[in-house]
């Protein structure tokens, strides 16, 4: 029939003047309708259905089906194609991921003999669809029925079966594809897939209130559900999951490491007893010195405690003593201690109890005196040997002697008052196994330079290797008196200036023959080496010190 045409049963035309005014149906009136008879009209892209209801059951089923379908499509993800069986060019349905604008419903009630008919028009736009169409038999149109807004998405009806088939056949992804589900199929199969999708969240069977994906449900029931039943592995008492977490840090049967860090694992319930009696790190007070130590170091402390009582090792009648006082007791008081004679270093071999030592000393006074005299002689020999060794260590073996003469003014004054006062340098060698030489100086002069000049000489001393050397001594010798604080070309190390004199010994000179052991052997040198006037005018003396260098030419030294 037409949207406003005649009825198929009684020929009555809706919208006739004799018909009643269209009324707005409320919820109770809609529930009283009879079985629906749906017919399709699509003028202008809209569709109209007329339903005759005879029972409430059919309406409930229809509404539930539409509501369920709308819930499925809320979070769908559609691929590019609408349907695997239809081309997008052949389909007029545009599937968008947004909720369509709410349509409006116009409902009218027409009385009939045994039933009521409801006319509902739905449009894709926000405007109301007219419930009447042009009629050739009526000259005037009735008042349009009032709008009834659709308040639920379940009231939206598919335009036609073809559109419904296209939508339900569209390829979609699972709503959990971002979580890793790879399912993709027709929309009509989505609900069945969600009933088995491992990424879909379901209610925890323990009714803890958590929504858990199926893939994580096993772990949730085993480890994280607060209402799961779990048994403490230490005390074997059953708890809920939440109760087990609270119990975990307080279980008295759980073995834990000692808080004092002794390394022992003890049941939590026995920790206080362990720390008081058994812990190796518990503090204990030494009964002798009142100091505190850990139990594992107390034994070591007892072996060294200065106030710990110990018996006399000589088993005398006195004691015990504090360990700190034992040494004094053995040194001064213990009568049972075996002691040596006080002249042990001199050679006395007596050793006996302390109470016999005094009698031994009185009886052997003369013997002890003889031992001390002999000891004194041995010590004198040792002193001389040490002096000789030290002298050897101080001897120069480079062939160059730098002689430092301190207290120059005192020695000069002494030389002027004493005739023939000679200063002698430390001996030195021309090489490790060479000639042994010694320089001497007369501050007030000698011979032609007496009273006006400083005289310097060198003499050959008896050496350890004279038998291997070539005689007479024939190497060049140079004396240099340094100016202090001035730069020159001939100084020590190429730095200081001064006065220098040198000579080459004549092989016929007796002074350079192989020396004898006589201490007054003659030397050779310069009686007028430097005048007192020049010595005062130039900076040869500084800080009351004079430096004289004696150098033997190393290029002419031949040991063998």
Structure overview:
This protein has 560 residues and is of the alpha+beta class. The chain is built from 13 helices and 28 strands. Among the domains are: 27-188, no CATH class; 337-393; 395-556, Apoptosis, Tumor Necrosis Factor Receptor Associated Protein 2, Chain A, CATH 2.60.210. Strands 21, 22, 23, 24 and 27 form a five-stranded antiparallel β-sheet that branches.
Chart the SSEs and their pairings.
Layout: H1 27-30, E1 47-52, H2 56-72, E2 104-105, E3 109-111, E4 116-122, E5 148-149, H3 161-168, E6 171-173, E7 184-186, H4 190-194, E8 201-203, E9 211-213, H5 214-224, E10 229-231, E11 238-240, H6 241-248, E12 255-257, E13 265-267, H7 271-278, E14 283-285, E15 292-294, H8 295-302, E16 309-310, E17 321-322, H9 323-333, E18 338-340, E19 351-353, H10 354-363, H11 365-394, E20 400-405, H12 408-417, E21 423-424, E22 428-429, E23 436-442, E24 453-461, E25 477-487, E26 496-503, E27 524-531, H13 532-537, E28 546-552
Antiparallel strand pairs: 1-4, 2-5, 3-4, 6-7, 8-9, 10-11, 12-13, 14-15, 16-17, 18-19, 20-28, 21-23, 22-23, 23-24, 24-27, 25-26, 25-28
GO molecular function, one term: ubiquitin protein ligase binding
Domain MATH: 398-552
Subcellular location: Cytoplasm
Radius of gyration: 66 Å
Task: Please tell me what the overall shape is.
Answer: elongated
Which secondary-structure class do the elements indicate? Answer: alpha+beta
What percentage of residues falls in helices of 4 or more residues? Answer: 10-25%
Question: How can the largest sheet be summarized?
Answer: 5 strands, antiparallel
The count of helical stretches stands at 13
* End-to-end CA span: 152 Å
Q: What is the typical, i.e. mean, pLDDT?
A: 74
């Amino acid at each position: 029939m037409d949207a406003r045409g005649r009825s198929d049963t009684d020929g009555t035309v809706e919208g006739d003047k004799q018909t009643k005014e269209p009324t707005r149906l409320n919820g109770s009136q809609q529930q009283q309708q009879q079985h629906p008879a749906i017919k399709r009209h699509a003028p202008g892209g809209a569709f109209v259905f007329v339903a005759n209801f005879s029972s409430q059951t059919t309406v409930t089923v229809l509404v539930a089906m539409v509501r369920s379908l709308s819930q499925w499509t809320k979070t769908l993800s559609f691929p590019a194609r609408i349907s695997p069986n239809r081309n997008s060019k052949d389909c007029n349905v545009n599937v968008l991921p947004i909720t369509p604008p709410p349509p409006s419903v116009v409902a009218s009630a027409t009385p009939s003999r045994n039933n009521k008919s409801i006319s509902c028009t739905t449009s894709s736009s926000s405007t109301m669809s007219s419930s009447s169409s042009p009629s050739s038999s009526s000259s005037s149109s009735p008042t349009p029925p009032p709008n009834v807004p659709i308040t639920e998405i379940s009231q939206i009806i598919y335009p036609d079966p073809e559109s419904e088939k296209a939508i339900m056949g569209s390829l979609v992804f699972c709503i959990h594809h971002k979580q890793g589900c790879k399912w993709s199929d027709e929309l009509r199969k989505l609900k069945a897939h969600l009933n088995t999708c491992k990424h879909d969240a379901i209610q925890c069977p323990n009714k803890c209130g958590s929504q858990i994906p199926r893939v994580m449900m096993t772990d949730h029931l085993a480890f994280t559900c607060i209402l799961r039943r779990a048994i403490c592995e230490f005390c074997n008492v059953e708890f809920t999951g939440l109760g087990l977490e609270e119990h975990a840090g307080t279980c008295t049967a759980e073995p834990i490491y000692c808080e004092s860090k002794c390394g022992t694992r003890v049941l939590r319930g026995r920790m206080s007893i362990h720390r008081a009696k058994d812990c190796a790190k518990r503090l204990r007070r030494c009964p002798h010195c009142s100091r505190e130590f850990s139990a594992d170091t107390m034994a070591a402390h007892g072996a060294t405690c200065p106030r710990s009582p110990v018996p006399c090792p000589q088993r005398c009648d006195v004691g015990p003593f504090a360990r700190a006082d034992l040494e004094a007791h053995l040194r001064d008081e213990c009568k049972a201690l075996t002691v040596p004679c006080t002249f042990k270093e001199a050679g006395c071999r007596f050793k006996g109890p302390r109470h016999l030592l005094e009698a031994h000393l009185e009886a052997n006074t003369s013997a002890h005196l003889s031992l001390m005299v002999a000891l004194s002689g041995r010590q004198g020999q040792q002193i001389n040997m040490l002096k000789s060794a030290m002298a050897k260590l101080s001897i120069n073996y480079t062939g160059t002697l730098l002689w430092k003469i301190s207290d120059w003014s005192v020695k000069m004054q002494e030389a002027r008052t004493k005739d023939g006062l000679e200063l002698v340098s430390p001996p030195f060698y021309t090489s490790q196994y060479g000639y042994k030489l010694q320089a001497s100086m007369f501050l007030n002069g000698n011979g032609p330079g007496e009273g006006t000049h400083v005289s310097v000489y060198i003499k050959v001393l008896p050496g350890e290797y004279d038998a291997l050397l070539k005689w007479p001594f024939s190497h060049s010798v140079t004396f240099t008196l340094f100016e202090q604080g001035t730069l020159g070309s001939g100084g020590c190390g190429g730095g200081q200036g001064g006065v220098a004199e040198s000579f080459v010994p004549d092989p016929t000179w007796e002074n350079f023959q192989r020396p004898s052991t006589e201490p007054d052997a003659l030397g050779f040198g310069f009686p007028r080496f430097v005048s007192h006037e020049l010595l005062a005018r130039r900076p040869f003396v500084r800080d009351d010190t004079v430096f004289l260098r004696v150098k033997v030419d190393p290029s002419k030294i031949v040991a063998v």
